[in-house]
Inverse folding.
């Protein structure tokens, strides 16, 4: 059993990697976003990025910096099949996941303008924002010294494998296949 965690900047291609792993490599997908959206709905909050950050930070502060991924990893271990957890946002999550010898962290990034165009195309309810808000959201999540808050920069720095997604989907798949070969998958 292999567990892959996916981290990266907003709109960089985390979902594209997950789609490939689930459809081509038979990985089971566990989504932090889906976990948080269920909690947001339960709390009757608006389903936007601000609510996601507030709820995620609250859960981490109430329970532990790794609480969300700890819940997802429990499910993954029970299912005992190759799994992908999307999207890792804090160093505490990585520390917790690294306790499992079968864990590998992938990071994906791309140019900001390209990422903004991608989020407009995916048209999810948390992505209806202008470019300035997109940049502000990312800056808020990019570099925090608070262990209960998002720190994408640290997560990307800690990744075992880094993918740059400035090209086509096929280019990203080629990079991903090379990493999977290195992992004998």
């Amino acid at each position: 059993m292999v567990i892959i965690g996916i981290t990266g900047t907003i709109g960089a291609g985390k979902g594209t990697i997950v789609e490939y792993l689930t459809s081509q490599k038979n990985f089971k997908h566990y989504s932090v976003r889906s976990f948080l959206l269920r909690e947001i709905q339960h709390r009757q909050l608006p389903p936007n990025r601000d609510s996601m950050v507030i709820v995620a930070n609250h859960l981490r502060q109430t329970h532990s910096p790794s609480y969300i991924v700890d819940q997802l990893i429990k499910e993954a271990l029970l299912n005992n099949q190759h799994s992908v957890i999307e999207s890792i946002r804090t160093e505490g999550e990585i520390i917790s996941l690294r306790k499992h010898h079968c864990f590998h962290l992938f990071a994906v990034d791309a140019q900001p303008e390209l990422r903004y165009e991608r989020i407009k195309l995916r048209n999810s309810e948390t992505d209806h924002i202008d470019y300035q808000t997109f940049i502000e959201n990312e800056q808020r999540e990019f570099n925090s010294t608070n262990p209960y808050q998002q720190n994408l920069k640290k997560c990307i720095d800690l990744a075992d494998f880094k993918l740059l997604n400035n090209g086509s989907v096929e280019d990203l798949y080629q990079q991903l296949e090379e990493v999977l070969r290195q992992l004998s998958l």
